[in-house]
Design goal:
23% strand, alpha/beta, globular, binds adenosine-5'-diphosphate, 33 strands, 7-stranded parallel β-sheet, GIY-YIG endonuclease, 728 residues, binds zinc ion, Rossmann fold
């Protein structure tokens, strides 16, 4: 009899021992169903041994070992181990939450044997078949035979497109010996005419990376918007495909998946590509995941979670828009998919490419200290496409009405006359961010969060954008009874309404999280824009990321000043990144682009750098500030977050936590403070910041500290360690 040590999805930092027969080290990574308390749980075998500290009468036998799919590869298990250590999160929870939900169930999964990776090849005896002898009513048979005699093969995917019953017919053909089921040979890039010649800068980037394709390096591909980073990715992938290896590409937004997927499919039509994102159902997800695990999927395109996909033949990792905050998970295991991707690349000794027009200051700094290697693309790839001109409208002199200044309105008018598209960017959805009583200054606040309720006129309701709470408009001020309560400030709905009034004939489309809630709404919107069925777009940051709108020539930016003097030390970096991205939407093809920023601070260094498209100079300024203030990337941080019904409970916990800490020289512990969002969903929040100049020392400290924290009574308090925190 052997002992298996099992990772289970329970918040305890240990593996669980069970007795098992007929197991060996080969079974590490298999799923297993075990009794746990009064119920069953499914976990993963992490170790196989012979001894245990559990007494014989308490040791229970494992109930069932799942063998329908191969074990999780050692590399993936090591990745889970690393995450558990680095993020101080229970191993079992890391493992089980990293797996598709079908693998967490108590039932074996049913596997469809066929994958896109197979094709049916016509055999000699198949060629003897007389098609005209097949009855005409057997349309599928006839169509397949016609296709086979014309091209010699039908792929799995083509068969499915032909008819849902086509695969069954092909199976019958196989039994008759008419076709043979064979794996699709590794695809060599079909060099179609649509492959552009590389620009000089792209060529340098491609050649430099491919020269070292067989080993680990972190490359920062720093290219202005429209510089053709995607083309660089495509060339690198094609190089890796030729070696029969897999590429993992991480992208920030689910919205971006179909667009990129289409580009990849067009370039590599016979390559098996799976796309893994939160829009998939469980079956779709497990299917893609298994294709990756078998090594059948050659390109794996996905959001954050895809970083935990098994990749036996990994050859390259790409993280597009590496600075994007969505790569950081904000609950449970608070991992950074970008950082884990780098770990994976190092583990597998393959290159990783971080792409961005506006790299995070961390990554930029890493190129300066030679930890990453930098490759620049400084001009736009399409001939004659130049970067947009950027100007500020000084709203101290040009007064705004409904958030819009006259110079901006005139520019929009001109754009309309030329039948070009324009975009008005305001990063705030709803009608107005505040409902205000004019006589006593009462504002409508969320009773569960430390935030104001946002006015949504269309729905005639007030919404909390943090917890989703909604309520009816009050008829009168609850504080003083006055009926003069008005929406104050501007959101997308209000700007949209103002534009409709000013330009009644223009086709205006608002794009924010409210307007794309419907499934697939986004696809429709993109098509509308591409088909030039819209003149003015009003939108939030949803629009800012990565989309290519060739007909867009004007971008107006409202209300960005609010982030200039924020207390969050990352606010300037984020604003700059966001504005660079929005500005980058203008003038992508043969139309010149203009960007107008409404601001009261036209001389602010951030706007000055933006006008020059000068990422470097602003990055230098921000890095100098960060260095002076001892902020990342010059220090490494961890945040102990606590939540409770009473703020004192949370602060108390943090004070006791600080008291038991035994910091070494290089560890700095700050005082407990309420979080920036001091109340969320009815819970009071506070935190305690710890930082160090040495990541190693910080980790060593956290490990010891964490052990002590776990012995604290956990009543009335929820706490978590957030490593490399992004939000405060
Ligand atoms: P980025 O991701 O860097 O913002 P994209 O990859 O979206 O830029 O490329 C911008 C545009 O340039 C796309 O329309 C793309 O097809 C085109 N493009 C890229 N490389 C080339 C090239 N070498 N020659 C011509 N057009 C190119
Ligand atoms: Zn009032
Ligand atoms: Zn709320």
């Amino acid at each position: 009899m052997s002992i298996i040590r099992v990772a289970l999805n329970v918040p305890v930092d240990t593996l669980f021992d069970y007795a098992a027969t007929d197991v060996s080290k080969e079974d590490i990574g298999l799923r297993v169903r075990v009794p746990f308390g009064k119920k069953w749980m499914t976990g993963v075998i992490m170790e196989v041994g012979t001894d245990t500290l559990v007494s014989a009468e308490k040791l229970k036998p494992a109930e069932f070992i799942f063998r329908e799919i191969p074990p999780l590869p050692a590399a993936l298990l090591n990745l889970f181990l690393f995450c558990s250590h680095y993020y101080h999160h229970p191993l079992g929870m890391v493992v089980m939450n990293g797996l598709p939900s079908k693998l967490r169930s108590h039932q074996p999964i049913k596997i469809k044997k066929l994958s896109d990776h197979f094709q049916f090849c016509f055999t000699d005896s198949g060629r003897q078949v007389d098609i005209s002898a097949i009855p005409a009513r057997n349309t599928i048979k006839r169509r397949l035979l016609t296709e086979l005699s014309a091209s010699g093969v039908v792929s799995n995917r083509e068969a499915r497109q032909c008819s849902p019953g086509a695969l069954k017919v092909l199976k019958e053909f196989a039994e008759l010996g008419w076709v043979e089921e064979l794996p699709v040979p590794p695809s060599v890039t079909s060099e179609t005419s649509s492959v552009p010649a590389l620009t000089a800068e792209q060529e340098i980037a491609v050649n430099t990376i491919t020269a070292e394709i067989g080993k680990f390096n972190t490359w920062l591909l720093h290219g202005v918007t429209g510089s053709g980073k995607t083309e660089v990715y495509l060339r690198l992938i094609s190089c890796v495909l030729l070696q029969g290896k897999q590429t993992l590409i991480l992208i920030p937004e689910i919205n971006l998946t179909p667009q990129l997927e289409a580009i990849f499919r067009a370039r590599f039509p016979t390559t098996s590509l799976v796309s893994l994102h939160s829009g998939l159902n469980d079956t779709e997800r497990i299917t893609g995941w298994l294709q990756a695990q078998r090594g059948d999927a050659e390109i794996i395109l996905g959001t954050r979670l895809a970083v935990f996909t098994p990749l036996p033949k990994i050859g390259l990792v790409i993280v597009d828009e590496e600075q994007d905050s969505s790569f950081k998970q904000q609950d449970g295991l608070r991992y950074s998919a970008r950082d884990i991707a780098i770990f994976r690349a190092r583990q597998a000794n393959v290159p990783i490419v971080l792409g961005s027009a506006t790299p995070s200051l961390e990554s930029y700094h890493n190129t300066m200290t030679n930890r990453y290697r930098s490759l620049r693309l400084s001009s736009r790839a399409i001939e004659n496409a130049t970067l947009p001109s950027i100007h500020c409208i000084d709203t101290r002199s040009a007064k705004t009405k409904e958030g819009l200044s006259e110079p901006l309105l005139q520019a929009l008018e001109k754009c309309l006359a030329q039948q070009h598209q324009s975009l008005v960017f305001i990063n705030r959805r709803g009608y107005a961010p505040v409902l205000l009583c004019k006589s006593c200054a009462w504002t409508a606040n969320c009773h569960r969060c430390a935030s104001r309720l946002v006015v949504h006129l269309r729905e005639k309701k007030l919404f909390c954008h943090h917890c989703g709470h909604q309520e009816q408009f009050p008829h009168a001020c609850p504080a003083c009874g006055d009926q003069d309560i008005v929406p104050f400030g501007h959101g997308t709905q209000r700007v949209e309404a103002a534009l409709v009034e000013r330009f009644p004939d223009a086709r205006i489309l608002r794009i924010d999280r409210d307007s794309i809630r419907r499934k697939n709404a986004w696809q429709g919107i993109l098509k509308t824009i591409q088909n030039k069925e819209v003149d003015i777009l009003v939108g939030t940051q949803l629009l800012a990321k990565g989309h290519d709108f060739p007909n867009l020539s004007l971008v107006g930016i409202l209300n960005s000043d609010v982030s200039l003097y924020s207390t969050n030390f990352r606010a300037s970096e984020r604003l700059f990144i966001q504005l660079m991205q929005v500005a980058g939407r203008a003038g992508r093809a043969d139309i010149a682009g203009h960007v107008l920023i409404q601001t009261e601070f036209p001389e602010h260094p951030l706007y000055r750098a933006l006008k020059q498209h000068d990422y470097d100079s602003l990055a230098q300024i921000l890095l100098a500030e960060r260095k002076m203030a001892d902020f990342p990337p010059f220090v490494y941080q961890a945040l102990l977050r606590a939540e409770a019904h009473q703020i004192d409970t949370a602060l108390d916990f943090l004070t006791r936590a600080a008291a038991v800490a035994e910091p070494s020289n290089n560890i700095e512990i700050f005082d407990p403070v309420p979080a920036q969002m001091a109340r969320l969903k009815g819970l009071e929040r506070a935190h305690l910041l710890v930082q160090s100049h040495s990541r190693k020392q910080l980790q060593r400290f956290l490990t010891e500290w964490h052990k002590k924290l776990k012995t604290f009574p956990a009543r009335k308090i929820r706490w978590v360690l957030d490593i490399d925190p992004q939000e405060f």
